[in-house]
Amino acid sequence: MKIGYYPGCSLLGSSREFDESVRAVAQAIGLELVEVPDWNCCGASSAHVLDHKLSLALPARILAQAEAAGLTEVLAPCAACYNRLASARAELVADPAAAAEIAAIIEMPVTGRVKVVNVLEVLDRFKDVIREKTVAPLGRKLACYYGCLLVRPPKVVAFDRAEDPQSMDRMVTAAGAEAVPWNFKTECCGAAFSVTRTDLVARMSGRIVADAVRHGAEAIVVACPMCQSNLDMRRPEINAGLGADYQIPVLFITQALGLALGLAPAALGLQRHMVPALALQPSATV
Fold first, then answer.
1. pLDDT-derived band at 195, boundaries 50, 70, 90
2. Domains and CATH numbers, the chain
3. Which of 21, 72, 86, 127 is buried deepest, with most CB atoms within 10 A?
4. Whole-model pTM?
């Protein structure tokens, strides 16, 4: 099976391990990723705040490039990229006049034919394959954290349940882990305030980390580079704010699945985390 692939800026920079693990897992389950030719930044997370036309033109060009390459679906692993691409596509499909204006700006047709999908949607199609190919069941308690952008706004993304999504829970269960019930699976981590208001991010992300630990999770699993960065890189600020020393690791869903599939930790980028994640290997003890 082939699918278009839009890595976006963060997966080639601050979240290289997400790109590495997506590609490794895709190969393991028989999914061929076809990178969108000459892709550009989607505008997350500032274009839609600064200029509405720019916020439409940037994603529209990506989708137009995908369509020109003969792709019908594009996988955007980054939740922010996924949300911007899906939201722009929905707006342009609903507003032919805006679509015509954007098409003139990017000098490419804007049809809305290319569907945008996130990493959980795609992996859910392979859950039986993942279950069959699992050679090292995780055997751990995991808190599946979806964040804001994968499931909202519901009418645009039309994916999973907005308040109690279950797709990631199904994935980790298929890989031999236990998805723990907890209270913060769709709460905001603070997102891009990580740059301007670290104090707010520490407080918001701290509530997420603390609740996951309170419910017995041994790791938090995410599908968003910003969520992973806030929960992992901002751990010193989180721990300082909580007066605690939480060392629970934060893994991308593809890293967790890759471990279960028997892939090498280095191929999944597990060595890149701020909070050590190598101890989550199925063969290790905690």
1. confident
2. 2-117 (1.20.1050.140), 135-280 (3.40.50.11810)
3. 21
4. 0.94
Q: Which residues contact 277 (CB under 8 A, 6 or more apart)?
A: 219, 249, 250, 251, 255, 270
Take residue 189 and report the two structure tokens written for it: 């981590």
Three state DSSP letters for the chain? CEEEECCHHHHCCCCHHHHHHHHHHHHHHCCEEEECCCCCCCCCCCHHHHCHHHHHHHHHHHHHHHHHCCCCEEECCCHHHHHHHHHHHHHHHHCHHHHHHHHHHHCCCCCCCCEEECHHHHHHHCHHHHHHHCCCCCCCEEEECCCCCCCCCHHHHCCCCCCCCCHHHHHHHHCCCEECCCCCCCCCCCCCHHHHCHHHHHHHHHHHHHHHHHCCCCEEEECCHHHHHHHHCCHHHHHHHHCCCCCCCEEEHHHHHHHHCCCCHHHHCHHHCCCCCHHHCCCCCC
User: CA dist 58 to 5, 9, 62, 70, 97, Å?
Assistant: 16, 13, 7, 19, 17
**2 and 35 Cβ atoms separated by less than 8 Å:** no
